[in-house]
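ESCALATION

Customer reports they have been waiting on this structure for their group meeting. Please prioritize. Original submission:
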Amino acid sequence: MNIGVVGCGKLGICYSAIFAKYGYKVYCYDINSKILDDIENDTYNYIELGLNEMIKTNKNNLIITRNLNDVIYKTNLIITFIQTPSLEYGAYNHSYIDNFIDNCISFGYQNDKKTIVISSTVMPNYCSTIHSKIKDYNYNICYNPSFISQGSIIANITCPDMILIGNDNSDNSDNSDLIELHKSIIKNKETKFNIMNLLEAELTKISINCYITMKITYANLLGDLCKSLNCNPSIVLDAIGSDNRIGNKYFNYGYGFGGPCLPRDNKALFYFTNNNKIPNINFDICHIIDQNNKNHLLYQFDNLKESKEPIEFKYITYKETSDILEESQKLLLAIKLAEYGKKVIIYERPEIITILKNKYSISNLNFINIYPSI
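Update from on-call: job pushed to the front of the queue and completed.
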């Protein structure tokens, strides 16, 4: 089975390298020619754990193409990792996926049925619209989003808790190649396969991340209360998390939620439910979670703003094993303290320090190089 991967960014290139490792011929396409050039010329340098070596070792199975028609013509399973940036009001911008679908339609009717797998986060009901648009050209649409965290993507892909697949065919016959592909690369044989229709899968994906934001925010809110009452947040939260109905994962006292996924999924679910105006269903909880996440940052700031000593941050990215600064609560706190006049020291990798220096010229921000821990 030849596989097409459309979109070889941070996530797509990890999947491509894993598929290649397990013997699949992977046709890699991206509109950003630099990504393809770097793979071809061995000039890539990804921070993701294990990725550089995996690409190097399995490069013979990575077929770089700058012609999208090659992917459509030479593969039967086309997995897309196409960006869906957030719009100002919280919904996702699907225009990049729409352009790809239009390209598939312009290619014409397929003699052999092909499956297009949408792996990007999308708004509920979106996949059904493209399924209706493209089915007459002999394409099937599946929704198969990933549950990964930057810095541990390869481990998350190969040892997932579950695989989520949405398909509008009631007999699930068009899922067979996709299921076979996943089973061939996962190490955790207890992984649960959740097969459902497209809308159910879209709702499942976005709702999981929203629940995680709620759990993180509740832990921090309760932790702030504990500190205000001179109690130890860790003792209280550990005890609550020991109840197996709750669990300790994502239930610790620390910084608020951030990164490229959780904040925007929370806003998207709020927008979707608010926009559809279903009687007696209100998801204002998403808005409240966002506000409490901001309140937690203010609480941390109030606790640190009178410090007589320099305030130090070891790693400022939203996660130590990542190079992503998007929605980093540590960074937001550091900037707020520096702007207030506190001396802030940030220990970071040289490439991150370069980004910070170019973006922030606050005199109280001091940077010290450290080597990555990954």
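Sent to customer with the following note: The first strand starts at residue 3 and ends at 6.
Escalation resolved.
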